[in-house]
Structure formats: C-alpha cells, structure tokens
Design brief:
CATH superfamily of the largest domain: FAD/NAD(P)-binding domain
CATH topology of the largest domain: FAD/NAD(P)-binding domain
Order of helices and strands: HHEEEEHEHEEHEHHHEEHHHH
Structural class: alpha+beta
Distance between the termini: 26 Å
Number of helices: 12
CATH architecture of the largest domain: 3-Layer(bba) Sandwich
Largest sheet: 5 strands, antiparallel
Oligomer: single chain
Shape: globular
Strand content: 15-25%
Length: 340
C-alpha cells in the first residue's frame, strides 16, 4: 500500500481463496523450537559454544567447545546462523556483507491505540508500504491461534512470553537517508524515533501513530546483511545450512523457509546414508549441489526486492508502477467477484 494507506495490490489474495497452503502463516520462534524439540530432548545438548574443529586422519571431525570439552562426529553441520563460527573457519571468504540498508523498528503490543490504528489488511498477511520517498515499511501480525496453544500443551509446553499478540513494525532505508553513519549501530531510542518521524513526514496519521507505539525498550537499528554467491567448494564431512551459508535480506520473507528446505533436503540425504543407499560423502555432495542452486537464487531475489523497495523513486516511472499495481489489483477483484 502507499504511505497514505491506499491499497496497491494484494498479491496472494487469489491463492488464499483456492489453496489453503498458500495462505500466509506466522509462527512464534519459541513455539517452533518446542515443536522441533518434541521427542528428541534427550538427544540435544545445550550451553556449549563452538570454538573450532579439526579434521581427523580417520575421517572423523573433532569439535572443540569453549568450556574445554570436545566430541568426535561423522558429520559437522553448521546451522549456527549469520555469525557462524563454523563458516568462518571452513569458508572464510563467505562472510555476509553489509547492504547499506538498515531497518528501524520493533514489536508493538496489540492493545490500546495500536489496535485502533492498524490497517485492516494486516490481518490477512504482511504489508509492505511503498512511499514516494526511498523508504519502505514492513508490518506483520503475530496472533497466536487457540488450536496452536492446545497442540503445545500436548507437547508439554507452557505459555511463552510471546503468546500475546504483537505487530512487527520495521521502517527500512539506506543509512544515509536516515542520517545514520556507518559503524554506529547502538543509537539511543530517541535518536532512532526522530529518524523514523523525519522519514515518515506526511504519511498517514495512523502509520505515524504506530511508529510512536514502538516501545523504547523494543526500538532498535537492524543492519541488513546478505551473503554473496561464492564458487562451489569441495564437499567434505563439514556442511552448512540456513543463514550460516546463505543469509538474505528480509524483503522476500523467505529466509526461514529456505533454511527449513535445507534441513529437509539434507535430512532426506542422510536417511539414504542410514539405509545404505549411498555414502555420506555422496549425500553431502548431492545436498550442497542442490542447495547452492535454489538458495543463492533466493538470496539474489531477496536483494533485488530490497533494492526495489528502498531505491530512488523515478518521478515518472514510480507513479506508472503504482498505477499498474492498482490495475492488476482491480482485475483480480473483478475475477473473484465474477467467480462467486
């Protein structure tokens, strides 16, 4: 939608009507963690920080931790995020880079004024606001479903700190557009709020009011980083998944999904090893060859979306793009109405 809250296009409305799987779904990270741990708690160890690894002559991988302990494994999987220590040792040239774009925002509890200011469309899925200025605003709702709470109880979980509904509110733009110098990520909340207010000058009062609803304790500056495609490396008994190898901007909202795809694909290959259908090295090679193709395509797609959302607006092309989006939106609405 525009900064005046005029809807431009709803790109998933048609899919939601015919395909329930295409419907937007949000999940609490804490809830997801509980679901993934259900039934395997005894096999998972916590509170051990990776320090380094060594490749042993007999093919094993020795992993050393900061507490002085170590283990030997057949396979080491780096699933330790964008700041992966495993990646830094294994593929030191694959560190993510700064994009120059930052996000300012945080969580907004859904009560009081915030509830009155919400655009109604946010209940159907995430919203991207594209103003005439080179900024973008992302809003997404987290509202726990009662049936999800029942499932968690069956897994033995208790209510979590994020069980109360909230809105993710993040204003994106290049550092220089916000007047924020590089190398100064820890800025006081009042400075960040003032930067948001300046960027949102002339926007719809409801959006400006929502920006003021972000609590100071939640208001933060988030540099947007992204991985770069790197030449294929020789597969070994060390591999990587998720942000550890292909972190991407949040502008397509697919980073978590790609990480889950990694896990599913690697898991299927390891199951073939377990059943004797293939060797471990061949399984890792098959996983990495496929992962590099789909994951780095998603990285490039995500970065392109970020650049489009926060790039300079051409005085003629941008109005034409908005008109095109509105036209497509009206055609989709007409098609849905005709189908009823």
């Amino acid at each position: 939608m525009t900064e005046q809250m005029r809807e431009l296009i709803s790109v998933h409305a048609e899919k939601r009507r015919v395909d329930p799987i295409a419907q937007h779904r949000s999940i609490s990270r804490i809830h997801l963690r509980r679901v993934l741990l259900a039934g395997i708690q005894d096999a998972v160890q916590f509170n051990r920080r990776f320090l380094r690894y060594e490749e042993m002559p007999q093919g094993k991988i020795a992993v050393f931790f900061e507490d002085g302990s170590s283990v030997e494994a057949d396979l080491l999987v780096a699933a330790d995020g964008i700041h992966s220590r495993v990646r830094r040792q294994y593929l030191p040239d694959a560190d993510p880079v700064e994009t120059g774009v930052v996000g300012i925002g945080g969580k907004i509890p859904l009560h009081g004024e915030a509830m009155q200011r919400l655009p109604r469309q946010v209940f159907d899925g995430p919203i991207m606001v594209l103003p005439s200025s080179p900024f973008s605003l992302f809003m997404a709702l987290w509202k726990p479903a009662p049936e999800a709470q029942e499932h968690l109880k069956l897994l033995g979980g208790e209510s979590a700190q994020d069980d109360e509904p909230y809105l993710i509110f993040s204003l994106g733009g290049k550092r220089e557009r916000f007047g924020i110098e590089s190398g100064h990520p820890a800025l006081p909340a009042d400075t960040l709020r003032q930067a948001m207010r300046m960027a949102m000058t002339g926007w719809h009062p409801n959006l400006c009011a929502l920006a003021d609803c972000v609590d100071e304790s939640e208001l933060g500056l988030f540099p947007v980083r992204t991985s770069r495609p790197i030449p294929a490396w020789k597969s070994s008994r060390i591999t990587l998944l998720g942000d550890a190898i292909h972190s991407m901007t949040p502008y397509r909202g697919i980073g978590g999904n790609i990480a889950l795809k990694d896990a599913a694909w690697l898991g299927s290959q390891l199951a073939r090893v377990q059943s004797g259908q293939t060797g471990l090295q061949d399984a890792v090679t098959a996983y990495e060859n496929s992962m590099r193709t789909y994951a780095f395509a998603a990285v490039a797609d995500s970065r392109k979306a970020m650049e489009m959302a926060n790039g300079a607006r051409h005085p003629l092309l941008f109005p034409a793009a908005k008109l095109a989006m509105r036209s497509v939106h009206h055609i989709l609405r007409w098609k849905r109405a005709a189908a009823l």
